[in-house]
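Changelog-adjacent note: as of this version, every example in the card shows the full chain rather than a window. The one below runs 558 residues end to end.
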Amino acid sequence: MNSSSTVLIVGGGPVGLAAALELARFGVPSVLLEQHEGVAWHPKTRNFNTRTMEIARKWGPEIYTRLRDIDTPPGWKSPIRFFDSLLGKEHGHIVSRGFEGPGPQVSPAKPVMSSQDLLEKILVDAAAATGLIDLRFGHQVTRVLSGWREDDEGASLEVTDVATGTSYTLHGRALVAADGATSPVREQIGIPLTGDKGIRHFINCYFHADIEPRIEGRGGVLLYVANEGAVGVLQPLDARGRWLCQIAIDMHDRSWDDFQAEDCRTWVRAAVGLPDLEVDVRSIGRWQMNATVADQLVQGRIVLCGDAAHQFPPTGGLGVNTGLQGMHNAMWKLSLCIKGLAGWSLLQTYDTERRRPSERTTLQSLDNHAKVQQLAQARLSGTDSGLDTEAVLRETRRYGNHLGVEFGTFYDSPAIVPDGTTPPAVADDYSDYAPSATPGCRAPHVWLGRSAELSTVDLFGAGFTVLAGPEGSAWRVAARRAAAQHGVPVAFYVIGDPGLEDERKEFQEVYGIEASGAVLVRPDGYVAWRGTRLTAEPGQDIDEALAQVLARTAGTSS
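Full-length structure tokens:
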């Protein structure tokens, strides 16, 4: 591959693989380096939420369909239950419909509850099929040679082939660090983390056991247990015998390494309430809960993504999803910069748009986790003494209801052209979502066509998109001229044209425009600019909007 256009990606987990797929969608080649020999051996992540699955739809229907086909069956995404043991007394539950998705009124996509090992296998197959991604498993990055200095025009790495011990140097135009919470890349280039580390420590055990038939009607997304032999949570992976369990460890009393397979079997039997249950322990993970965000997400030509950029408590499954959605924000910008179609300051807006929201989400996630644990402790102890249970229940419902985090993020940066409006207020910006086409918001989903099977979300491809009202055809010429002027693809659609009928008469109201108005949507599906009605100079409007987003000068060609 030509190093002048190739991106180096460090880390072959969900975020690294997805970054490679996003770059390939924009025609940018990449080399992905992962020190392990293959995909995840331990199913840490379970949830690809609805917004993440909107992103996955852009990688192709076959990828989206495969991901959906590994989804956990109904009855296992809600509620959160509290037991002394799974076969013993149930003390209460919390409805957690957020894991089931908001439904077709909010998005055309559906979430997936599965396991990281299966998710990664699908992403690896998809990456190999692009022809643009050089997958190098078993290759460890030993040193970052360049890329973090402001005057660096590329990035380079020292890499070791783990199997042979051979070292070599690799050059690229930029570097995406998706190498996890301990991120050697982040550490080497000296970007500090802000927040709390080591809040709690856990054993994460993956096992097979025939539990489901024994607890019929008592399934759920998280099954908390507390008795003399087991305190923690059980997590179903597929309702077919694959499970995870989270066991909190007090590092003052016992080290991680002291907890081995037989200890896990004993714990699971006590948690289920069946002393002779056959438990096949497949793997044991050890992790600590952090709530941190990197002090900057972009340094020179190096971009931090996923756990390298931020680490969340596991509440609501926000870790991998925030990582994937942040990556989605960054990769289209990086692609345009590498192609010379945007100024490199565009990439800096990834930091502006994603770091501050990540700080807020980290704190909210930590707060939610604390409230769930507080309620769990009270319910599992059989007493709510001194606890305002109803107040805590109201708060803990946020655990599985995070529409605001998924869809309501509002960007304010130079890559957005404000129009003087603000998004509609909601009661709880973590849980609640009100669709809006205010510049800086996710372009809302509206069903189109006579059969209402096409979403506005499906129209946003690997370029910019102009959506115009039924009397906005004059914007078409403006869009074509701006596309030619800036050398970027700009798709154009008049809502109301054949196959784009607005049978429910929702588009103009949801998008906040008149029949002659239009919106410009970025490649990540966020509204960059909005014109509520046709103006005297539509070409100038689109030209200036694109120029601002691309960090270029209006009226100049690429």
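Structural remarks: DSSP finds 13 helices and 27 strands in the chain.
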